[in-house]
Amino acid sequence: MSIVVFTEKNKAASQIASILSGGHFNRASVESIPVYDFKMNGKEWRIMGLAGHIMGYDFPEQFNNWRECDPAVLLDTPPVKNVTKKPYAAAISLLASGAEEVVLACDFDREGENIGFEAKEIAERVASLPVKRARFSSLSSSEIKKAFSNLVEPDYNMAMSAEARQILDLKMGAAFTRFMTLSVREKARTKGVISIGPCQTPTCGFVYEREKLIKNFKPKDFWKIEAIFNSNGSDFTGVHRAGNIHEKEKADEIFARIKDCKTGLVDKKSVKEARTNPPYPLNTTEFLKRSSKFLGVSPEEALETAEQLYLSGFTSYPRTETNKYADDFDFKSKLVAFSSGIYQKYALEVISAGEISCRNGTKDGHDHPPIHPIKAASKDDVERSVRMPNAWKVYDLIVRHFLANLMQPAIFEKTRMEILVGGEIFDVKGSILKSAGWLAVYPFETKNDKLLPFIEEKDEVDVKKLKNTKSETTPPKRLTEAELLTLMDKHGIGTKATAPSHIETNKKRGYFETKGKTIAILDTGFTLMDTLDATVPILVQPEIRARIESLIQDVEDGKKSLESALEEGTLLIKKMYSQLTSSKEAIAARMAGTIVDEQVATDKKNFVGTCPECGRMLHMIKTDKGRFVGCTGYPECKNTYPLPKAGALTVLRSQQCEKGGVAVMKVGNKYNWAVGIGPCFTCDLEKKCFPPEIVGPCPACDGSMFLITTKDSRFLACTNRCGHTQSVPKSGRLTILDRLCEHCGWHILRVKEQKQDAKEFCGNRKCPGKR
């Protein structure tokens, strides 16, 4: 008989087996699933890693046909839980049949506890066994040994809170998605699915609200009066006390009084010391925000990278609400580990300061400590163990944040002056970093000095220039992923673990996209959110979802049973569904033909443009008889356009037809085609629309050499068709640079082939420089 341990992932299983066995374990397999065997304290131990959830909820089979099942029925239908990963279930059963005890060692959070209970449920089908729980926040040797020496009871309430989330999310997602999709299909030809999700939709709602502010923004004029002063040879800037002046007459009046002034008087000067405190310890939300803001890493990638760092033993568990360390947290051993290597200077600075103190936050999730490093590692160590593109960047951020939290505040010297010019007050501000403190280890928040010359009160300064500048107010900026995470956290949308997936789901649905560090809503997302906001605003707003999250938390805290939370949550969902169904006609009318469904989001190349007849979308349609451009508003709109029978078609999004074609396409590498007009080579405006890529003057006549690209080759030919041609390299990406050859005046060509350095050269074989 053996003690069987189930972890959440195979990597954790192998790490734990290595620690508990002192590295002396055997690898076996059960139902092709890796199992790690060893002896400890005279007993046989077997450890198996799962693959996340091995069971899942779904509705009974008779509810699978969308058209034959009213979506409302799903809200009153209890879903059933089935095994989704049968090899793992079979392996659990085999291991449990020969066990004397089961230990659950999955991640200590809702989903981890629930995954453990799935294994427990399957094991108990074959044997009645005692089941214990090992809780840990890192895969360090000391913590694993401590956890397995102090096994506890599994947390039923925590596991059931995950059940509540799964069931309520399934009911809402399935019923609402089916209703929306079927309603639109009644009005328009579409095979796509219009997806509504309990967290996905309010997440998109935040982006929509910001986009609406931007679209509705009306700029206003304002004037700002600035002075460039000079003292002791140094220039510095002051701003009129009125700041942004919205009345032109007032700005002109002030400027008229002072425009001829040549000197100013320093009326007041103050110098104060300002402190910038270290950041609070990292919880998951703050980690994701900082990864996005400082590293440009998406929340989903950041969380997955942190998960792999945790499984490799480099950092602690990455899903935690907590941003404060316990009183007995062992800082000293962590600092000693970093007292050599690239972080040596900062670790020794903290150690040498004497008593170690951290700047704690106020959140205590009673689950895991803040995210922190477990062991010191080099860049090579991290990248060898964690095969993810930003593994080292994420590890470095976690280490630096940990050290910064233990260091002294940064100290700035802030200088403020009031300078009188013709009786008008100009404010001048300066700042100097006197002591870097925690900023020394945290390059992500560097602040540049704003130096001022040495001036005392009552000194005169020269007025070098006065400006009365007209500007416009600017619209709000688009949300960054960090700001979106802040809004989700504030309104209780999702959890620390699920927030990144809700953002990613919206991207996959084609509802919004990231551009640099900001999020831009796409037409699909805006249309959907605008429709819901006009008809069922409760779906877009976060309040109902926040209430459901509160119910789930009540289950975890033991304040509500699973059954009562499901009953109350279902009533909230029914309330929203009732509003949705009462607006069916309005929703279908607004969305039919204007929303690009999920199929469109993943197949953008087939969408051509806007239908001039009805304003809906035109797309390429392929049938057994050929291909053509049709309208998504069919059958109401029967507008179509022919396409050439052969050749790969690419829509040239940035190209417009001068004669009114609805779009321009490239047909293979041969010619261009204007939809609704025909082939461009028959058009007298072809050269205007597609000017040749001129390389230089023709050596044989007064024409110009230009690039011709065919399916199989490319070469240079003369615009006068004099017969002179020249070859260019057939492979690699070819670019015609703006830079000219100093010998012949041809544009320099640049060719870049894979795994080779780019080559730049003059393509003129008769260039004097080649003689």
TrEMBL record:
<dbReference type="Pfam" id="PF01751">
    <property type="entry name" value="Toprim"/>
</dbReference>
<dbReference type="Pfam" id="PF01131">
    <property type="entry name" value="Topoisom_bac"/>
</dbReference>
<dbReference type="InterPro" id="IPR013498">
    <property type="entry name" value="Topo_IA_Znf"/>
</dbReference>
<dbReference type="GO" id="GO:0006281">
    <property type="term" value="P:DNA repair"/>
</dbReference>
<comment type="similarity">
    <text>Belongs to the type IA topoisomerase family.</text>
</comment>
<dbReference type="GO" id="GO:0008270">
    <property type="term" value="F:zinc ion binding"/>
</dbReference>
<feature type="domain" description="Topo IA-type catalytic">
    <location>
        <begin position="155"/>
        <end position="577"/>
    </location>
</feature>
<dbReference type="InterPro" id="IPR013826">
    <property type="entry name" value="Topo_IA_cen_sub3"/>
</dbReference>
<keyword id="KW-0799">Topoisomerase</keyword>
<dbReference type="GO" id="GO:0003677">
    <property type="term" value="F:DNA binding"/>
</dbReference>
<dbReference type="InterPro" id="IPR000380">
    <property type="entry name" value="Topo_IA"/>
</dbReference>
<keyword id="KW-0238">DNA-binding</keyword>
<feature type="domain" description="Toprim">
    <location>
        <begin position="2"/>
        <end position="141"/>
    </location>
</feature>
<dbReference type="InterPro" id="IPR006171">
    <property type="entry name" value="TOPRIM_dom"/>
</dbReference>
<dbReference type="InterPro" id="IPR013825">
    <property type="entry name" value="Topo_IA_cen_sub2"/>
</dbReference>
<dbReference type="InterPro" id="IPR013824">
    <property type="entry name" value="Topo_IA_cen_sub1"/>
</dbReference>
<dbReference type="InterPro" id="IPR023405">
    <property type="entry name" value="Topo_IA_core_domain"/>
</dbReference>
<keyword id="KW-0677">Repeat</keyword>
<keyword id="KW-0862">Zinc</keyword>
<dbReference type="GO" id="GO:0006310">
    <property type="term" value="P:DNA recombination"/>
</dbReference>
<dbReference type="Pfam" id="PF01396">
    <property type="entry name" value="Zn_ribbon_Top1"/>
</dbReference>
<dbReference type="GO" id="GO:0005694">
    <property type="term" value="C:chromosome"/>
</dbReference>
<dbReference type="InterPro" id="IPR003602">
    <property type="entry name" value="Topo_IA_DNA-bd_dom"/>
</dbReference>
<dbReference type="GO" id="GO:0006265">
    <property type="term" value="P:DNA topological change"/>
</dbReference>
<dbReference type="InterPro" id="IPR034144">
    <property type="entry name" value="TOPRIM_TopoIII"/>
</dbReference>
<dbReference type="GO" id="GO:0003917">
    <property type="term" value="F:DNA topoisomerase type I (single strand cut, ATP-independent) activity"/>
</dbReference>
<keyword id="KW-0479">Metal-binding</keyword>
<dbReference type="InterPro" id="IPR023406">
    <property type="entry name" value="Topo_IA_AS"/>
</dbReference>
<keyword id="KW-0413">Isomerase</keyword>
<dbReference type="InterPro" id="IPR003601">
    <property type="entry name" value="Topo_IA_2"/>
</dbReference>
<keyword id="KW-0863">Zinc-finger</keyword>
<protein>
    <recommendedName>
        <fullName>DNA topoisomerase</fullName>
        <ecNumber>5.6.2.1</ecNumber>
    </recommendedName>
</protein>
<dbReference type="InterPro" id="IPR013497">
    <property type="entry name" value="Topo_IA_cen"/>
</dbReference>
